[in-house]
Amino acid sequence: MASATPVASDHMYEVVLLRHGETLGYDGDHGLTPRGEEQARARGKALAAEIAPGTRVLLPHARTSRATATAVTLRAALVAEGVDESLLGALYTEPHFDNLRFSLDGEVVDTSVAVGARLELGPGPEPDWVREYDRFDSDYRDVAAAGGPIEFWVHEPTLYFEPPQVAVLRTWLGVAALGPRLADAGAELALVCTHSAPMRAFVATTFGEDLGEPENLEPIRLRVEDGEARVAFRDRSITTRIPQPPAWIDRGWLESYGR
Q: Could you tell me the sign of the dihedral formed by the alpha carbons of 220, 199, 62, 248, in that order?
């Protein structure tokens, strides 16, 4: 059943979207490399220096292994740098901040599931979805890490991948839903470990151009108040209203998926 429509809270709060750390590969649902763990620790150290004493923090994350591992390492780094652990919420998964999704035989799955199905196929005629996935990625390593597949996805229409604007709208739904959740927890900050696909599309729709692949642990910062968000990425910032999904998108499905 669809959840109630999330409405951005009137109180001011901040959200930091973070790309996961370097992963072991994109041919499945993998965790982090040692370098990816170090990236998460470094970002945790930098964020700890910014967090004012007494600030309560929520820590939602995408459901993949690499996002989960990033969140675990980030939280540990915050504690190691002196952030009061009692003020850090427990880690929890939030499907609004999921990785890029894919329609596999009519079922919506994470792209790591789709690539697993693709690699398991034996010889013979290739289904249409396989040809599309191969256009998206057939490297699963360096090219994927550098953002080649996501650049393709942002710029080329597809039939089986979640469209960029849908990934953006569900991310905004997640940002809006954090308002009341933060208020209930007496918190004003959420650190969200997510993925480059929704982040890159989020930036492109917010600033009106594709600004390239977010680096591992690179932040998008949002300050939300009264239905508006000040969005900052690299040297850019802009204030925008929190968008609502248009009538041609099934909002109920967006809000209920993964719950």
A: positive
**Residue at which a domain ends, from 155, 175, 201:** 155
d(C-alpha 4, C-alpha 243), whole Å: 17
Read off the pLDDT of residues 154-176 as tens digits, 9 standing for 90 and up: 999 999 999 999 999 999 999 99
Residues with Cβ within 8 Å of 64's Cβ and at least 6 positions away in sequence, in order, are 20, 29, 98, 99, 110, 112, 195
Residue from 141, 109, 161 nearest 26 by CA:
141
Q: State the Cα–Cα distance between residues 29 and 141, nearest whole angstrom.
A: 13
**pLDDT tens-digit readout, 86-126:** 999 999 999 999 999 999 999 999 999 999 999 998 777 88
What is the C-alpha to C-alpha distance for residues 10 and 247, in angstroms, rounded to an integer? 25
Q: How far apart are CA 118 and CA 235, in angstroms?
A: 39
My answer on whether 81 and 172 are in the same domain is yes
Could you report the per-residue pLDDT of 123-155, keeping only the tens digit for each?
A: 778 899 999 999 998 877 676 666 789 999 999
Contacts (Cβ under 8 Å, ≥6 apart) of 213: 146, 147, 150, 151, 196, 200
Q: What's the domain range around 233?
A: 13-99+165-256
Q: Can you read off the two tokens belonging to residue 49?
A: 């220096």
Say what the pTM is: 0.93
Question: Based on the structure, what is the number of domains in the chain?
Answer: 2
Reported as a single tens digit per residue, the pLDDT across 186-235 is 999 999 999 999 999 999 999 999 999 999 999 999 999 999 999 999 99
Q: Report how far residue 61's alpha carbon sits from residue 94's, in angstroms, rounded to the nearest whole number.
A: 6
For residue 129, the SS3 value is: helix
